[in-house]
Prior knowledge:
Blueprint: H1 2-30, E1 37-40, E2 46-49, H2 51-57, H3 61-65, H4 79-92, E3 96-103, E4 109-120, E5 126-135, H5 137-156, H6 162-177, E6 181-188, E7 191-198, E8 208-209, H7 215-223, E9 227-229, H8 240-245, E10 250-258, E11 261-270, H9 279-307, H10 309-316, E12 322-330, E13 336-344, H11 346-352, H12 356-359, H13 364-367, H14 376-385, E14 389-395, E15 400-410, E16 413-420, H15 422-444, E17 448-453, E18 458-461, H16 463-468, H17 475-478, H18 483-490, H19 497-510, E19 514-520, E20 526-536, E21 539-549, H20 551-610, H21 616-643, E22 653-656, H22 657-674, E23 678-681, E24 686-689, H23 691-707, E25 715-723, E26 726-732, H24 765-775, E27 780-784, E28 790-797
Parallel strand pairs: 23-25
Antiparallel strand pairs: 1-2, 1-5, 3-4, 4-5, 6-7, 6-11, 7-8, 9-10, 10-11, 12-13, 12-16, 14-15, 15-16, 17-18, 17-21, 19-20, 20-21, 22-24, 25-26, 26-28, 27-28
Helix pairs in contact: 5-6, 5-9, 6-9, 20-21, 22-23, 23-24
Amino acid sequence: MVNKVEKELRKLEDELHNSRKNEILLGDLLKYSSQPFGVGYPDGSLGIVNKAFEELTGYTQEELKSSDWSDTLTPPEFHDMEHEKLEKLQRIGQPVKYEKEYIRKDGIRVPIELLVHLVRNEDGSPKFYYSFITDITERKEREMLSDALNKLNSYINSILDYDEIMQLIVEEGAKAIGAESSVINLIERDNWVVKFVYNFPNNIIGQKKTDQESPTSVYVANEKKAVAFNDAPNDSRVNKNGMKLHGVASVLVAPIILKDEFKGIIAFYHHQKSVVFSEAQIDFATKLASSLSQAVENAQLFDEIKNSEEKYHSLYSSMNEGVALHELIYNNHQEPVDYIIIDINPAYERIIGLKRNEVVGMKASEIYGTGTPPYMELYAPVAEKGKSKEFETYFEPMAKHFHISVISPGKGKFATIFEDITERKTSEENLQKTLKRFYIILSNMKASVLLVTEDSRVEFVNQAFCDYFGLKESPIELVNINQSKMIEKIKYSYQNPEEEIKRIKEIIDDWKLVLAEEVLMWDGKSALRDFIPLFVEGERYGRLWLHFDITKRKKMEEELIRSQDNLRELVDKLEVSNRELEQFAYVASHDLQEPLRMVASFTQLLEKRYKGKLDEDADEYIGFIVEGAHRMKDLIDDLLVFSRFNTQANEFELFDMDTALNSVLSYLQPYMNENHAQITYDPLPSIMGDSSQIQQVLQNLLTNAIKFHGDEPPKIHISAEESGDEWTFGVSDNGIGIDSEHQEQIFEVFKRLHTREEYEGTGIGLSICKKIVERHGGRIWVESKPGKGSTFYFTIPLAL
């Protein structure tokens, strides 16, 4: 057992020895590589590193062996991220790349990018990592300076005052580049004038210097590029007295050039010690100076506009068309990529809906929410070549149509003069849509249709026209031919060609409206002819010719006349029959009243005199007779009402439903009090109808709603809603409800769902409601569930 353990230990020692040998071999290969390289173990210790790694971290090989790569070199804020990356490396087995920082021996942080590989043991566990490291200090510096430049450019393109912009540039520019101070000097009348300063005494602002006093500026002007004077006190190209006066150790100067003309310089200074300006910093100064030229140009343009302000604004501000002045923005390749708005007139604000302070100085790509500058491909050629252009367009972000004219007041600039033509375009589009629908209707008409425009051109002809007049051409082939040619094609279809052509020309010349003019065709058939002048927005558009073959219709009219005579005779007989039936019902119900009263009276008299003197059966029989007489009286009374429905009806008139309802509620008040009923209602409209009959409908529905209540006191609501061409009224209750299978039969005469012992009534009330509503041209129905209450709806057509 011991020998086995010893063998295993010797095996592990050999593997470790071989591993170290491999590391030494790998180290020899990478020792002189210019890219930092290092080996690290999962426990945090460092293996071999090359010379470049030592230079990057500031530690020697020996010092690093006793260091921990995860703690000594790596700042704490990167630990979690690095741990996740190494876990991913172990999981997928593929090299991982990520960025972090190293803490050098001198305490300075260095941004780096690592490409980390993993070597595993036989069991798959991590053995060691080896990494190729890239110093990304310069890249990070360029990114930082690029962000700073974008920020400064946003100031230049903003609506800030010119002086504010320039002051921000000297301050923010110096901070971005790490300089301690900065100035902007501009040339005015052959002198260098200090215009803006940062971390210099304010009393130097406005100082003027000659070329001899500003050799640095002159040198940069001649070179036409940014120049770094890293050892300023010992550089022959600078004014040493000036450098000594202000304690300048290093200075970076960039030229401000506008349209190949030197305008001034921007300079960044270090005072404490000499520094070497990096390529990234020199590039930043160059680009910032280029952007400064735009700010200077904007200032000059505004000065020019201001100098001619009175003349300019008298015309510019009074224009009905919107006007905007723009300037192109170029990229590093001098390609136009955007444009800013320099100025607008009041009409721009009114048409576009944006205020002056929202657009002036802003990029077009930002103003309209498009992400790209609108119509750049049209505007840029005008601004660069000066050739004007005009076009019409639909601008989707504003959902408007515009007519735009574009002119150029100078190289790289353009002005747009525009008007909102949305209303006109909408009218045109609506006209086209209307015509399209019109043509579809005309195409499907059985009548022969021809549309001729005001300039005598055939615009439309349907297939029925071609068939009726025997034309060989299709409708498409006839479009756009002259009116006179069409007349020649069809004239022999008339029985009297010459007379008809003369008549047609007379109608055309006089622009007459002719309807239902009867003509005879060559085959003896009859036709009706219409000539309808068409107008669009008050202007003549064309003439619509319609031909209707009325041969069959004339025969049908003759047959119809005979049928109408027969129908009229039948209606007369039916009216007589109805009157006789109504009279019979009235007489029957009226004449039954007298014998019924006699039966009821004598039975009641019999009950008073002999009740209790005869046996119990006799008393019960007398009660049955009295009750039956009362029921018969109720039935006869309701039948009498039903029979008088038409004979006693009133003419329809406009009346207020609120007033009608109040009258009904006043009548029902005792019944409501007796049953503790609560009745609410919406504001009700005025309708056209028979007020007394509509009150009868409301009274019957409300009486039923109170009568058929459940355990709770009745709660009733009356609603009214306009729907289409009618009013829909609803009477809702919380009563016992109605099963769906009975909801139609309840409107039939004398149909009852309950016995008289359960609920009183004859079962004719809803029949009367149905007859009244139908007389008014409406419908009545119920929606209900047992135990859930009911809503009775009825409709009345709108009052005209």
